[in-house]
Amino acid sequence: MRSWQFHEFGQIDKLQMEDVDIPTPTGDEVLVKMKYAGLNPADKFLIMGLYQGCAEPSYSVGRDGCCEVIQTPEGSKFKAGDLVITPSATVGINRDGTLAEYLSLPEDHFALLPSWWSPEEGAAGTKVFLTCWQALSDAAHLQPDETVLVTGASGGIGLAALAIAKEMGATTIAVSRGVKKAAQLKKLGADCVLDTEDPDIVANVKELGGADVILDIVGGDFLSKCIDMANPYGRICIIGALAGINCEISPVGIIFKRLQIHGMQVSMYKADESQRSLKELLAVLEPNKVALKIDKIFPFEEVQEAFEYMRYGPLGKVLIGPIDE
User: Fold this and answer.
1) How far apart, in whole angstroms, are the C-alpha atoms of residue 9 and residue 197?
2) What is 27-42 written as a DSSP string?
3) 17-27 confidence digits (pLDDT tens)
4) What is the pLDDT of residue 325?
5) What domain count does the chain have?
């Protein structure tokens, strides 16, 4: 089979398509044939050796995917032909991931594709929705009358956060670089859209009433602004560091506002926790049949081009597929 593998940490060109053996399932493992895979900025960081807790290569990356069940263990809850998604935390981090034609994982690493999602939407939404659910529900305990601010709002994580927050009854503020995407962001769940580079952004957020919960994907120096924009008893959930890992912050705002700052890492979910969270998440998304916006789908042969495309800030998720053609 074809699989995108890397054998040592380094730049993204270390990831190359190779011919490898189709995995042989053992024990309670299910063999699947991949249909679509979703890309994440964290995949690139992993290849570069900047992702804590990942396994030493060689293996394929990719943590999001939709696939068709090919072979199951005796007594499995799945059957051949079922379409499934990959909520498991270890996929593409501590074992082979979804950028391959076939994948073999324990049964509890899969879940049935939700009935209102297409295979493409299943590959796009699973991990980003789970990450945001971990932040908004597990960590922040978001309430319906609160305001959620999302930085880096036009990416997959950002759009997932806006969608979930709206379904939970919150007011939403999207923060994105430039204003070209403002109209689209409002259609996708933002009540208000602000420019990351606006020098008055902190004052503007305060005029809107401040933020009770902040999902920060940008990191870097913007984290200090998040502290300034947060309301007393606010919760800041740090998901990414697209603007860099260094930031100088003052503890004063944290202390006197009694802020809570949470680091979000969905890969720390155990399989049973992923399944529990996915069930809770889908119960929130199902009434309005919420799915994640897909920006562009690249052929399986163009993974490198897809990673390059992600550098320019797509509006939504970037996918690879169809893989099974």
Assistant:
1) 33
2) TTEEEEEEEEEE--HH
3) 999 999 999 99
4) 66
5) 2
